[in-house]
Write a structure and sequence with these properties.
This protein has 177 residues and is mainly α. It has two domains: 56 residues, no CATH class; 109 residues, Rhopdopsin 7-helix transmembrane proteins (Up-down Bundle), CATH 1.20.1070. Helices cover 57% and strands 6% of the residues. It has a three-stranded antiparallel β-sheet with strand order 1-2-3, with no helix packed on it. The longest helix is centred in the last third of the chain and has 35 residues. 11% of the residues are buried. The N terminus is likely disordered.
Length: 177
């Protein structure tokens, strides 16, 4: 099947739906037919346009007070997590003291970098997408945020393993901690 060359932002007016936000989703609708391109699988699928363009009301509706509390708590956690981990990295990597530059502290700096990835990508993007019940950040961030969050989790996990192995050998070999 051929891919249409023109991208039209006009959608059928008889559809009572949120067609204006459809650019945030991973489909491209061919305006001449009832085909759509699924960007995830790169397949053209035949379907009814209402299936592609119409987004039903959110499944869950959260009370306003709950949303306000979630926004406040997540933003506080985001700011404290980002700021605290940046301070740890700064102190360990740019401190002039030789006593701070140990293998264990470099592991802690690496752990803080993984936590910066998680705090910077999981918290702000995750809770907004859950509360709003759609992905408002566009296709590029859709493809970048989830792999980066996964990298942050693996960095933190494997750094903890390396730190535990380092401490095990330090205790077993009776070296200075």
């Amino acid at each position: 099947m051929d891919v249409p060359t023109n991208v039209s932002s006009e959608f059928p007016t008889h559809l009572n739906c949120m067609a204006s936000v459809s650019s945030n989703y991973d489909v491209f609708v061919d305006p001449d037919t009832t085909r759509y391109l699924n960007f995830t699988t790169q397949d053209w699928n035949e379907t009814d346009l209402e299936e592609v363009l119409c987004f039903e009301q959110p499944v869950l509706e959260f009370p306003l007070l709950f949303c306000i509390v979630v926004y406040i708590l997540y933003n506080v956690i985001f700011i404290i997590g980002l700021f605290g981990n940046l301070v740890v990295v700064y102190i360990i990597l740019w401190s002039g003291s030789k006593s701070v530059k140990t293998v264990g502290n470099y592991f802690l700096a690496n752990l803080a970098l993984g936590d910066i990835l998680i705090a910077g990508l999981s918290i702000p993007f995750g809770y907004i997408a859950i509360l709003w019940q759609y992905w408002p950040f566009g296709l590029l961030f859709c493809h970048l945020v989830n792999p980066a969050k996964t990298v942050g989790v693996f960095v933190s996990s494997y750094t903890l393993i390396a730190l535990a192995v380092d401490r095990y050998f330090a205790v077993c070999n009776n070296t200075r901690l």
